[in-house]
Amino acid sequence: MKTFDDVLQATGGFDWYQWRTYFFVCIAIFLECLLTFTQVFTGGTGEFWCERSKFQTGECLDSNKTSTECKRLGQLASCMSYNFTFDEDEKQLQEYVKTMPCEEGWVFDHSVYRNTFTEEWELVCDKSAVTNVLQSVYLSGFLVGCTLLAFMSDRFGRYPTLVVCGAMTCLSTLASAASPHPIVFGALRFCVAAFSYGLSLTSFVISTEMATPSMRVYVGTFLWILFAIGYFVLAALGKYLNSWRLFILLTAAPFIPMILAIVYVDESPRWLLSKERYKDADKIIQKIARTNRKPLPLNYLTNLEESKDVAAKGGNMLDVLRNPVLRLYLLNLLYNWFVQSFVYYGLSLSTSSLGVDVFIAFCISGAVEIPSCIFGAFTMVKFGRKISTGGLMIFGGLACFATIFAPLGPVRVTFAMLGKFAITASFSNIYVHTAEIFPTPMRVFGIGTCSVAARVGGIIAPLILVFEKFWASLPLIMFASSSILAGLLVFFLPETKGKLMPDTIEDSLNLKTIPRSKEANAPKA
Length: 525
Description:
Layout: H1 4-10, H2 16-36, H3 39-42, E1 48-50, H4 58-62, H5 67-73, E2 80-82, E3 85-87, E4 92-94, E5 99-101, E6 106-108, H6 117-120, H7 129-156, H8 158-176, H9 182-209, H10 216-240, H11 244-251, H12 255-261, H13 269-274, H14 278-292, H15 300-306, H16 317-322, H17 324-348, H18 358-383, H19 385-405, H20 410-435, H21 443-465, H22 474-490, H23 505-509, H24 518-521
Antiparallel strand pairs: 1-6, 2-5, 3-4
């Protein structure tokens, strides 16, 4: 018994103890979806027109105009109106050909979006880009979660990072619902993004570190199915709630079961072993054995201490950068994560431009993710990580190209959702593949570093959608071409199907040569 994977297998594999921890992880990932895409509905913009008080009172009607004519005269477009005046003596409408800005504000149509911060703060016309900037500010908060909080997880442990991130995510979410101004809202949403991503990233790593090789694909896949279910919850809240502030408050509801579940979560034994904290690791491993009702092998800890596979002393990201092979792996993964997020968020945030009801389109977008995650897991198990991820990204890029030429409506939705299907499957795959490439002492920070590139892609995606106003096809062209290139680059990464999770840098370097583990080759019990 030389590795922690051997210990996991001896203590029941993925049994009751792992399921308890996994429940907490599932809540964290579900919460991530709610918080990330909240703005699709809280910041949505329906039809609007200029507020012209004189044309909404009896003054216009007194000038022998019909109500329809008054409404037409009161507006030219969403951002400009006719510059009409009234003769105060004769109550006659003086008609001029000039136009003027909307000086009195706007009237908003509520047939789609009932109440949004876009309406409350009048983020339309010359301020319309603020909504996209706020979404990019949120996604830029992920950078903090990818770097500082990922470093915290690897340096101080998975468990304290979960506690800090969970508490701060809850507080930031509640505070953002009371924001009085877009700047305050943006700052708080930045905090929500940072801590929620630190929470979900660390939760994902814990789930993979507690899983045996044969279960890692399924553990990672089910998490993204839960993420997809969040789409339906968001669409229902957006459809029936009359307050964007209440909407945000309800997205914090999953914190209640999370608080209850945290008592069943422990520090990752794999991380403790990598830090040579053998006594602490022994306590948790014994707890795993008791909970799963399995006997512990004799002298298992001594064997682990003597094994060279336990720890990578002094291992850090600098060691990765110094090694030419790992450096190429890292650069490849950085670009792939960038593209995954760039295309994923680009397609997810543009559902309103597909020519169908925004709530239906958003639900379809989420529904596509469930079978796509299952399909991604199936292809990873059947064909391996490289063929699955690379092939899906190439297919997704081709689907994006097809969307450019499709007419608005069902046909365009079909091609867009095929692209979303492929990119979602590959996105869930790349998480598992990356976790299987980086060694234990730098796994969270390694995934976090790749996530930095992904967050840059996520930040850019909403801004790229702005270019639709100048050239409607440009965003899809960029999504398609970058996805195809990234898919081709995946084939230069090592295949990790069925191999033990690396605990040292040497293990990572040997991924292209070491054989698959016997346990991973065995059929799932």
